[in-house]
From TrEMBL:
Belongs to the transthyretin family. 5-hydroxyisourate hydrolase subfamily. It comes from the Bacteria. The keyword NADP does not apply. InterPro entries: Hydroxyisourate_hydrolase (IPR014306), Thyroxine_BS (IPR023418), Transthyretin/HIU_hydrolase_d (IPR023416), Transthyretin/HIU_hydrolase_sf (IPR036817), Transthyretin_CS (IPR023419). GO terms for molecular function: hydroxyisourate hydrolase activity. Residues 5-117 form the Transthyretin/hydroxyisourate hydrolase domain. It comes from Notoacmeibacter ruber. It catalyses: 5-hydroxyisourate + H2O = 5-hydroxy-2-oxo-4-ureido-2,5-dihydro-1H-imidazole-5-carboxylate + H(+). One of its GO terms (biological process) is purine nucleobase metabolic process. Homotetramer. Catalyzes the hydrolysis of 5-hydroxyisourate (HIU) to 2-oxo-4-hydroxy-4-carboxy-5-ureidoimidazoline (OHCU). This is 5-hydroxyisourate hydrolase. It holds the Pfam family Transthyretin. Keywords: Hydrolase, Purine metabolism.
Length: 118
């Protein structure tokens, strides 16, 4: 089994999955960022397929960038103007070539958290 990367986003302020949130994946090598993927979350707050599938998986340093500002502005009842949070970068390493890495984002208008999921 080859490794792969998945993610999902939960809107903890609303208690729902965060749908229609744009996510970009970058590989970091020698200080340079190279974009590998761009996906939007579905109604379950997940991407329809792994953001980094088995056939493209390599160990190394990566960065997921969650476009939270656009999502937060689009929500009913959002305040006019710019939200407190905008793009949220999460940089991490994947070392096991056969592992499933899952990096979720728990999001609210004024804070977020993440962890290595399963």
């Amino acid at each position: 089994m080859a490794g792969y990367l998945t993610t999902h986003v939960l809107d903890t302020a609303r208690g729902t999955p965060a749908s229609e949130l744009l996510i970009r994946l970058f590989r970091i090598e020698d200080g340079a960022k190279r974009q590998l993927a761009e996906m939007t979350t579905n109604d379950d707050g997940r991407t329809d397929s792994p953001i980094l599938p088995e056939d493209r998986f390599e160990t190394g340093t990566y960065e997921l960038v969650f476009m939270a500002g656009a999502y937060l502005r689009s929500q009913p009842g959002s305040q006019d103007g710019l939200p407190f949070l905008d793009d949220i970068p999460i940089r991490f390493r994947m070392e096991d070539p056969d592992a499933h890495y899952h990096v979720p984002l728990l999001l609210s208008p004024y804070g977020y958290s993440t962890y290595r999921g399963s």
